[in-house]
Specification:
The protein folds into 3 domains: about 1-135, Tumour Suppressor Smad4 (Sandwich), CATH 2.60.200; about 160-260 and about 355-390, no CATH class; about 265-345, no CATH class. It contains 10 helices and 22 strands. It has helices spanning about 1-15, 140-150, 155-170, 200-210, 240-245, 275-285, 290-300, 320-325, 355-365, 370-375; strands spanning about 20-25, 35-40, 45-50, 55-60, 70-75, 80-85, 85-90, 95-100, 105-110, 115-120, 120-125, 130-135, 185, 215-220, 230, 265-275, 310, 315-320, 335-340, 340-345, 355, 380-385. It has a 7-stranded mixed sheet with strand order 4-3-8-11-12-1-13. Strand 9 (about 105-110) and strand 10 form a beta hairpin. Helix 2 (about 140-150) crosses helix 3 and helix 2 (about 140-150) crosses helix 4. The longest helix has 17 residues, at about 155-170. It is globular.
């Protein structure tokens, strides 16, 4: 009986993989030792896998065994222990919880967080902790990313633009974590993916995702998938790629961004001790004694246009380092004295490279379509269908 279910599983899985399924590690950054999963229906199989993640046996068929379908997974040494209520089901190299239908969902609780996902779940012990991987159709993943990254304001053309960016990022970074057994993580080191798409704007997000299905953004010259950098708000001017990272990228160039001006994350302020601020700059420039000219340069620093560096007598300090060390919203700030403090008056939120989410939402509200939005924030790019690309 069990082996018959394995054959059924293999047949079913062979049909599923005709679509593009992506593997996403859930609860990234957490050292999990347990997880509780409750499928929303009983249309699931629990499959035992070997060390190579190949199916070897069916543990339970939740469709036939409908009572108590909540499952408890835990790390025990190098094996995964699985239980159903008080009934132990055994310890295995790895396990796969498989939905018979892709639209079915499950609720997972781990690390104090409860989430809802589509697709299948894979469990194994990796580097001493329980690794949970969601194997899901890429379009369902994209919809979840759009909701997690910017689904709070119902703007259909913006959702389309964000879906194209999410899909492009996933395919460009397909092998990023392949040696660890998955494609991407669920946090901002890859793309935020905190659940399936199911909240208040789900209908428009899902429609936007499937209306742009198979569409990606590529560079005109090389026809390569682009680096789809985006941030919350540019502060009125985007940044060059090398201002935030190392490499100069032709399609990620600084430009005036009128659509981000006055939007929700446009301005910010932060107060810092003047002594702490000055001593920080002195350390960076190797200045050990009082230097009134240097102090004046620091305390009168302004940015009408975005700068990459604070410079003094031929030396320079990357503003991205100042941002990181003082935990600022952006590098786009000016300094104002206020007694024993300095007030850092800034614009924008994030690294400033690529698409500004506030600006894109504003463009969508003003009637711009997703193509116009993407072409505004990325230089020399074009939309392309996956069927015409060699990936």
């Amino acid at each position: 009986m069990k082996y018959r279910f394995v054959i059924l599983f293999l047949l079913m899985y062979s049909f599923q993989v005709k679509a593009i399924d992506i593997k996403v590690k859930l609860y990234s950054g957490k050292n999990l030792d347990k997880a509780i999963v409750t499928p929303t229906s009983t249309d699931y199989y629990l499959i035992a896998l070997d060390e190579n993640l190949e199916p070897i046996d069916t543990i339970i068929d939740l469709y036939e065994e409908a009572q108590g379908n909540t499952l408890y997974f835990s790390e025990t040494g190098e094996l995964v222990d699985v239980n159903r209520i008080k009934h132990p089901l055994g310890k295995y190299e790895a396990l796969l919880l498989v939905s018979k239908k892709k639209e079915k969902t499950f609720v997972i609780s781990a690390a104090g967080k409860e989430r809802i996902y589509n697709g299948n779940l894979q469990f194994r012990v990796y580097n001493g902790s329980l690794q949970v991987v969601n194997i899901v159709d890429i379009e369902q993943y994209v919809a979840g990313v759009v909701e997690s990254e910017g689904g709070h304001i119902d703007t259909y053309e913006y959702f389309k633009a964000q879906a194209i960016l999410a899909r492009t990022f996933a395919l460009k970074n397909w092998n990023k974590h392949i040696s660890e057994g998955y494609n991407l993580k669920d946090d901002v080191s890859s793309q935020a993916y905190y659940s399936k798409c199911y909240l208040q704007n789900k209908d428009n997000i899902i429609k936007a995702t499937y209306d742009t299905k198979d569409t990606v953004l590529v560079s005109k010259e090389e026809c390569d998938l682009i680096l789809t950098a985006f941030h919350a708000n540019s502060g009125g001017q985007t940044a060059n790629s090398e201002d935030a990272w190392v490499s100069k990228v032709s399609y990620l160039r600084s430009k005036e961004d009128k659509f981000s001006t006055g939007q929700p994350s446009y301005t910010w302020e932060k107060k810092v001790s003047k002594e702490q601020f000055l001593n920080y700059f002195k350390r960076q420039f190797g200045i050990k004694s009082d230097n009134k000219e240097f102090e004046k340069a620091v305390l009168s620093f302004t940015q009408k246009d975005r700068k990459s560096y604070f410079t003094y007598e031929g030396k320079r300090l990357a503003l991205k380092n100042v941002r990181n060390d003082f935990k600022l919203r952006s590098t786009f700030f000016s300094v104002e004295e206020s007694g024993d403090e300095v007030i850092l008056k800034g614009k924008g939120y994030g690294h400033g490279v690529g698409l500004s989410q506030d600006g894109a939402i504003n463009m969508a509200k003003q009637g711009y379509n997703c193509k116009e939005i993407l072409y505004y924030y990325y230089n020399n790019v074009e939309l392309e269908n996956l069927n015409f690309l060699e990936l």
